[in-house]
Amino acid sequence: MIVNVALSYGGRDEEITEELISQNLDTAGQPDPDFIIRTSGEQRLSNFLPWQAIYSELYFPKVYWPDFDKTQLDIAILEFQSRQRRLGK
C-alpha cells in the first residue's frame, strides 16, 4: 500500500536571523572575541564559541597553559597587533 502525505513544512519557513541566533547564545550581549589564544599548539578550537569566533584572530602558541605567563602574553599581543584584520572581506 502506498500512502501519499502532503507535509507543509520547509526549513526556510523559519524567521531565523543572525540577530536571533546571537540573542539566544550564552554570551548574548557580549562582544565577539577579537583574539583567541589556544595554548599547547593544538590548532583547533574544539567547538569553543563556534558562532562568536567566526572573525576572531587565532593564535596557537606551543606552550601549555601553566607556562603561559606575562612574557607569553606580550608575545601574543605583539602577534595580534601585527595582523591585518579583514573581518571576512
Q: What is the tally of beta strands?
A: 2
Strand order of the largest sheet: 1-2
Instruction: Estimate the mean pLDDT confidence.
Output: 89
Give the fraction of residues assigned to helices: 10-25%
Specify the biggest β-sheet.
2 strands, parallel
Summarize the helix and strand pattern as letters: HEEH
N→C terminal distance: 55 Å
Radius of gyration: 20 Å
- What percentage of the residues does DSSP assign to strands (E)? 5-15%
Uncertain runs are none
Helical/strand content category = alpha+beta
Broad shape? elongated
Can you offer a commentary on this structure?
The chain has a domain at 31-89. The protein contains two helices and two strands, in the order αββα. The relative contact order is 0.15. The model has no long low-confidence stretch (mean pLDDT 89). The chain has helices spanning 18-23, 70-81; strands spanning 35-37, 57-59. Strands 1-2 form a two-stranded parallel ribbon. It has 89 residues and is α+β, with helices and mostly antiparallel strands. The chain is 20% helix and 7% strand.
